[in-house]
Amino acid sequence: MANYKRTLITSALPYANGPVHIGHLAGVYVPADIYARYLRMKGEEVAYIGGSDEHGVPITLKAKNEGVTPQDIVDKYHGIIKDAFSRFGISFDVYSRTSSKTHHETASEFFKKLHADGKFIEKTSEQYFDEEANQWLADRYITGICPKCNNEKAYGDQCEGCGSSLNATDLINPKSVLSGNVPIMKETKHWYLPLDQYEPWLKEWILEGHKEWKSNVYGQCKSWIDGGLHPRAVTRDLDWGVPVPVDGGEGKVLYVWFDAPIGYISATKEMTPDWEKWWKDEDTRMLHFIGKDNIVFHCIIFPAMLKAEGSYNLPENVPANEFLNLEGDKISTSRNWAVWLHEYLDEFPGKEDVLKYVLTANAPETKDNDFTWKDFQARNNNELVAVFGNFVNRALVLTQKYYGGKVPATGELLDIDKETLAQITSLKANIEKSLDTFRFREALKTTMDMARLGNKYLADMEPWKVIKTDEERVKTIMNTCLQITANLTIVFAPFLPFTCDKLRGFLNMEKLDWSELGCTDLLVEGHQTNKPELLFEKIDDKTIEAHVNKLLETKKTNEMAEAVAAPIKENCTFDDFQKMDIRVGTIIEAKKVAKTKKLLKLLVDTGIDQRTVVSGIAEFYKPEDIIGQQVSVLVNLLPRTLKGIESQGMILMAEDADGTLKFVAPVNEVKNGSEIR
């Protein structure tokens, strides 16, 4: 859309089963806020929509574990998240929640419209059911052995061991999280959105019509579409969520992936009665700011929903980011490996903008990036303090010293003065180009170049020396420095809003629009500035060391928890054990399985035969090092196919506290085929 009157900005709804951390901020909320503030400064009409995602199985699991209701969980974390965003200065025009009455009504009406128009298909399928708990089991309520890597703690939707996406029926030895029992398969009916029917349209709309999207977004969309789309269930058997509002929907709710994006619409309704102009007017463009785990939902599934409904605008762009890691390790809420926003705000009062600066400078825009406390300290001390803060402080302190804080009249500008001021205009053009194409890291770097420009100019001009011989020249130098400083209050405002408020207070000036960036007469002769304070302060080694140690303690706690022996499994009978035929064998061949990290293809002499066994030990053993190794083999395990290879048994391994796998083998060599009893 080349021309538009207004922009609707949405940012992914944070899941209300825990607080917000720096990964969320870097991936979604900081860039969205920068862009919203930038457009507002340009005088454009903007609505920045946010809210908490409050439905889904993880919330019900957390409630069960804590012995409270799902509503208790979402009330707690919605409050924490909303308050943290407000304190951090994320400038939502509305921050709502999907447990609200407005949202339930909006999502229900959306579903009923598609249902009435025949946009869904109904399918009956068999799903897992826990007879003891008398409950259908969502994917996260089922655990078992991963068929791809043998991880015994895989979930019904994903194995966190190897990262594979799974179906619950793929699991080996599935068990219910609720009772620990083996679930049964039972028929149930659900409504599906036939994504395959929208595949031709999506190919044209995305692959042909939106080649300007970021490469990571476009590439993921292309991969999904080229792989073929399939009908996706929009309802599930659960008692927490938006009830299915049609006959036959009793005991079912809308799938969270279906109802959550509708939360953008319901939040807009809460913001204004004139909500339709933001969603249905052709003069409005819509932008989704999300992380890479939400690309498919916002680029393929939600647009298909909107297309099916027929009256809504489609997103103009989806500038998704990749993931931010922490100290070289993946951020994990379950392992408490994170820097939580609400804790940061308490531990670093007044340093909201420092975190915004660091997260933008390290933004994972096209690939995963890393946050470290040392880099946080270095960027604060070497860039914010030593460049931006140093220039502003010296300019204002010298103005106080020489002119009592009044802006001096400028005299004749020399070439160096003209060239310096002219660079502001060229930097502005580059910053706009970066912001308009969602390259926020690049935009911030160029913005800091404007502060570097002032810092270098002041250092080169040395007014503290020139004042001894040419007072009129110093007036021009200081006026130039003050005009640059005033421009910095504009150019940094989308990135560092609290800092710019503070700097405007020093300069005793009102907030300026983006159009005034580049003007060289923002402060008139005689304008009285206020006594300055430091814009930023150095962060010492002791503070950083404390936060590094805090993370190390977290890692130590996790390792200790992982080192605790797994609980003893349910009792079995001697007859159960007798059914397992475990023999000593010898590995005679070993090869890596192509396109896998963990799997080795082994040929094992069992004393009975020579058979192929696929084992997930490649991270711990090189193929050439285990030829001749005696092993324990479960030889009467039903064969199963892994990566196209039929595995005829299982090698028994012992898992150490650090996750290392070691062979279970006789101390002294014995004859192949010897039974283990």
Describe this structure in words.
It is a single chain. This protein has 677 residues and is α+β, with helices and mostly antiparallel strands. It has four domains: 235 residues, 3-Layer(aba) Sandwich (Rossmann fold); 114 residues, Methionyl-trna Synthetase, domain 2 (Beta Complex); 149 residues, Orthogonal Bundle (Isoleucyl-tRNA Synthetase, Domain 1); 90 residues, Beta Barrel (OB fold (Dihydrolipoamide Acetyltransferase, E2P)), CATH 2.40.50. Helix content is 41%, strand content 17%. It has 19 helices and 24 strands. The protein has a five-stranded antiparallel β-sheet, with no helix packed on it. Strand 4 and strand 5 form a beta hairpin. Helix 11 packs across helix 12. The N and C termini lie far apart (72 Å). The mean pLDDT is 93.
Can you give keywords for this protein?
677 residues; 19 helices; single chain; Rossmann fold; 17% strand; 24 strands; Isoleucyl-tRNA Synthetase, Domain 1; 4-stranded parallel sheet; alpha+beta; Methionyl-trna Synthetase, domain 2; 5-stranded antiparallel sheet
Short description:
The chain is an alpha+beta fold.
Strand order of the largest sheet: 18-17-16-19-22
Radius of gyration: 31 Å
Sheet with the most strands, sense and barrel status:
5 strands, antiparallel
E-strand count: 24
- The computed structural class is alpha+beta
Measured between the Cα atoms of the first and last residue, the distance is 72 Å
Low-confidence spans: pLDDT under 50, at least 5 residues? none
CATH architecture of the largest domain: 3-Layer(aba) Sandwich
Shape: globular
What is the CATH top level name of the largest domain?
Alpha Beta
Q: Work out the helix count.
A: 19
Q: Considering the protein shown, what is the CATH homologous superfamily of the largest domain? A: HUPs
Domain unit count: 4
Content of β-strand: 15-25%
